[in-house]
Amino acid sequence: MGIIRTHRRPDTPIDVRGSGNLLVVDDEAMVRNLAKFALERCGYTVELAQNGQEALNAFAARPDAFAAVILDLTMPVMAGEEALDRLWQLRADIPVPLSSGFSEEEALKGWERAYRVSCRSRTRPPRRLSGASH
Description:
The chain has 134 residues and is α/β, with parallel strands linked by helices. It has helices spanning 29-41, 52-61, 80-90, 104-107, 111-119, and strands spanning 3-4, 21-25, 45-49, 68-72, 98-99, 128-129. It has five helices and six strands, in the order E-E-H-E-H-E-H-E-H-H-E. Strands 3-2-4-5 form a four-stranded parallel beta sheet, sandwiched between helices. A two-stranded parallel sheet has the order 1-6. Helix 1 links the parallel strand 2 (21-25) and strand 3. Helix 2 (52-61) runs parallel beside helix 3. It is globular, with a radius of gyration of 15 Å. The two termini are 18 Å apart. 19% of the residues are buried.
């Protein structure tokens, strides 16, 4: 399970425009609001949740309404690992890019085992995103 990275020349623009409804989950209001602002400027509609439980409630009410869930790993109430597993129980094909304010190494400690366990019954493995990707 590698990390998807996009390598490009610094002067090469990336087209990140798109459409669809995204659920952004982060316990920090500034991060949520910045993500919403940036993603809406790129053409997406964005709904916000401040923890895994809020995200799960919003997603469970309308699982087919979301194109992806951008999920923070470390949050109060319900952390990213549990939220991810429950989101996939509701809809196994939902893309879930993971985010964290911690270093990649620190944020992903313990997740390799969780991914292997969680993905045994999945038809496609999870994707971990780091850096700019599209």
